[in-house]
Amino acid sequence: MSVSGLRKLNIFATVFFVAQVVVLLIVAKPASLPVTGQFLVGPPGAGEYGSTELFSLRIDLLVALFLALAAIDHLLVATIGRGWYERNISEGRNPARWYEYSISASVMIVLIAMLSGVSDAVALLAIFGVNASMILFGLAMERANAGREEVDWAPFVYGCIAGAVPWIAIVIQFILSGSNADGVPGFVYGIFVTLFLLFNCFALNMWLTYRRRGRWQDPLFAEKVYIWLSVTAKTALAWQVYAGALAGS
């Protein structure tokens, strides 16, 4: 793919994400999930806890948020940041990608966790933070290997370790919810499987890039794959959430 072709793909992604935001806000019914706080009401070790609802988060607005963040990122690199973006891409880097993912992908994983039944504010903050750290290890991977012949895999490995934590937390929540008669809605399991596979495809794309396998020797091709993965993952989550929780009766 040429640099001009990459710009066209970014413009397409911008328009596609904006269109989804508009359609979603028109057709989705408002729906909220609670964010709670747990606190000790007795001495430590007594096992006495209280709980309160701190606030609620609108599911439809969270979906619109991660779609809008992606649209802004693609718009900026296709317009005012184009020169900076293309210089970085030619050298196998894209800081803008990681800055956007660190927020948008972390909003996505928090939403998945909430749909699975995680509501504690401290747990959700930790899930957001560790996922953002995983994404930023991707940025560290690109910076650590700029101009190197021998690849330093440490940031990649650390990122994989950090990235596993939110998914393990969600699996634990699934297990805990399994004892409940209502349990976790079926569509949430579908979201879990779909997004788990797609998130891991990002790691696979990076691995192939630094292994310099086939077409991944071309940094423009690797960037194209990242864009399509972003479009696919965000679209899949948005409309699976819509079908399961936001569609009108």
Describe this protein's structure.
The protein has 249 residues and is mainly α. The protein has 8 helices and 2 strands; from the N terminus they run H-E-E-H-H-H-H-H-H-H. It has one domain (3-246): Rhodopsin 7-helix transmembrane proteins (Rhopdopsin 7-helix transmembrane proteins, Up-down Bundle), CATH 1.20.1070. The protein has helices at 3-27, 59-78, 82-90, 95-116, 121-144, 154-177, 186-211, 219-246; strands at 32-40, 49-58. The chain has a two-stranded antiparallel ribbon. It is globular and about 60 Å long.
Oligomer: single chain
Ends distance: 44 Å
Q: What's the total helix number?
A: 8
The CATH superfamily is Rhodopsin 7-helix transmembrane proteins
Q: Please, how many domains? A: 1
Strand order of the largest sheet: 1-2
Radius of gyration: 20 Å
Text of the CATH class: Mainly Alpha
Descriptive key words:
Rhopdopsin 7-helix transmembrane proteins; two-stranded antiparallel sheet; 249 residues; mainly alpha; 8 helices
